[in-house]
Amino acid sequence: MKQKAIFLDRDGVINETYIEKGKTYPPQSLDQYKFLPGVHEGVAALKAQKFLILVVTNQPDIRTGKQKLEVTESMHRLISQELKVDEIYACYHIGSDHCLCRKPKPGMLLEAAKKWNIDFTKSYLVGDRWSDIAAGQAAGCKTFIIGEGYSDQKIATPDWAVQSLLEASKIILSTHAEQSYPG
Fold it and tell me: What is the mean pLDDT of residues 59-85?
């Protein structure tokens, strides 16, 4: 039986980002890592409705040497422990590597689908960049963008625009209930 999943971007969806000279950056240490408000509640509500929770995150700072792999892995352990996510997929490439996993390509989602037997038509991606939305749509998910999508080139139109993961979770749960129990 195929499973339904929630694909979550990491920085800007699960945790705070830091802005420097108008550009967003991930936390540089575990001490800087802060969950965004409502994340625990939103994830718990989705898990209670039997959604798989999968994190799909581009982390090019590993490749460029701006971040140590051990620091990123410690953040991922914290996410796994606190939110009880089912798995975290990370792409450490930069755009010029032309890999298949870096969003906006759907490689991480497709890899997860093979392992977890995911039905993309019953799944959602929540991101804060247009590249997240494009990856979700390429896989066949419904999509949410948090905020304005930063200054990325707008390459896709999300199904919903929200201000937080908690807001997205409420829409997902109400939409999913309507699809599961037509009136």
Answer: 95
